[in-house]
Amino acid sequence: MASNHPLPAIAGTTLFDGEQAKKGYALNKMCFSFNSADNRAEFQQDEEAYMRKYRLTEPQAAAIRARNVLQLIAAGGNAYYLAKFAGIFGLDMQDIGAQQTGLTKDEFKARLVAAGK
Amino acid sequence: MAKLIGCIGTSHIPAIGGAIHKGLQQDPYWKPFFDGFPPIREWLGKVKPDVVVIFYNDHGLNFFLDKMPTFAVGAAPQYNTADEGWGIPVLPPFKGELDLSWQIINTLVEKEFDIVTCQEMLVDHACTLPLKLFWPEGECPVTVVPICINTVQFPLPKASRVYAMGKAVGEAIAAWDSDKTVAVIGSGGLSHQLDGERAGHINKAFDLQFMESLLSNPEWATQFSIHELVEKTGTQGVELLMWLAMRAALTPGKGSGVRKVHSNYHIPISNTATGLLALEKVD
What single DSSP character describes residue A10? Predict the structure, then answer.
């Protein structure tokens, strides 16, 4: 049974609730495994085999291949675990923020600075 | 009985660990953040806590979605750090304070908080960075009791529940049969959002009002639902729950008043509005 969401949606925001947690379990489990340097190396050696090992769904695998954060979230990814995936590529949170908002990194950083004025 | 001397709230961001490691404290980007800490270190040097209780949220180091506790209390003789996936340096272990861990566990369960207890617990940057920021030199001089509050998977505990839990922890500390001095840390927030098209969301007005409320009206934020807190402060801004638990620990009994030692607020570090607030308990 699908859970109800009586609360108004927050624009541009996906709450990582039970629905997302169920949908994203395999993807998040793979990202959790990236705490280990050995696992990160194994993933980088053969991404497809590593994704099969964690039984990612096709949308999850496609989002990983595309390095697309919004698609990863849509596929059930959780920000805290996805950060470990991003770390493999040396991406920081401002790279991730820029990608999701369609801004350049400099534009994204300027927006943050403006929020402090 | 143990003496509870005050509390310190601070933001935690993995990049801070990198900046400390690289010695960037005086770098123009980092200076407005690190400059908040010397007055607090000076105060800590005077009041010299022996033990700190730290409210923090795990970021997928110790806990995964296979088992996700709402409240988890550390009861380990020592707490190890580990690779969190980004290669920030692993730190030496932090010493636990077993007697206080069990005092808190026993008190919380008696007060009907059905917590998880952890005799082994990896602690991540949220738990360790405040310790490095407050005591940058040498071995950490305090023992620790980490208390993890879930901010990973919704539903999160309500702000009012977190406040009540923090208050119960304060009561446990106050009733602890020990001559030790205890401080409480809240590690998280303030407003920020990492995920979604709204990534980069920051709410300075709310943050400043929240920090002010901890001085004058600590239950102020409990009027908001989790949904409202996320809407106002971002999906990770909701980590302000750690500050709420921390502040609540100072409220019980006589002498619930506080004095502000120091505060700082700076936007941005990484994607985050960083807050820092130390309050001394005034008897």
Answer: P
Quote the DSSP letter at residue A94.
H
Contact with chain A for residue B89, Cβ under 8 A? no
CA pair distance B186, B8, nearest whole angstrom: 6
Considering only the beta carbons, identify the residue of A13, A16, A97 that sits closest to B271. Answer: A97
Q: Is B214 on the interface with A (CB under 8 A)?
A: no
In this predicted structure, what is the pLDDT of residue B66?
Answer: 98
CATH of domain B3-282: 3.40.830.10
With 50 as the cut, is the pLDDT of residue A2 above it? Answer: no
pLDDT band with cut points at 50, 70 and 90 for residue A1:
very low
Residue type, B146: P
The residues spanned by each domain of chain A are: 18-88
- Which residues of chain B register pLDDT less than 70? 252-256
Q: How confident is the model at residue A4 (pLDDT cuts 50, 70, 90)?
A: low
- What pLDDT is recorded for position B216? 86
Strands (E), B103-161: 116-118, 143-149
The dihedral sign for the CA sequence B59, B62, B65, B68: negative
Give the pLDDT of residue A90. Answer: 86
Beta bridge partners of B166: none
- List the catalytic residues of B: 125, 192
Q: For B182, phi and psi rounded to 5 degrees?
A: -125, 135
> Please, what is the average pLDDT of chain B?
95
Looking at 1.10.700.10, 3.40.50.300, 1.20.58.760, 3.30.499.10, the CATH number of the domain A18-88 comes to: 1.10.700.10
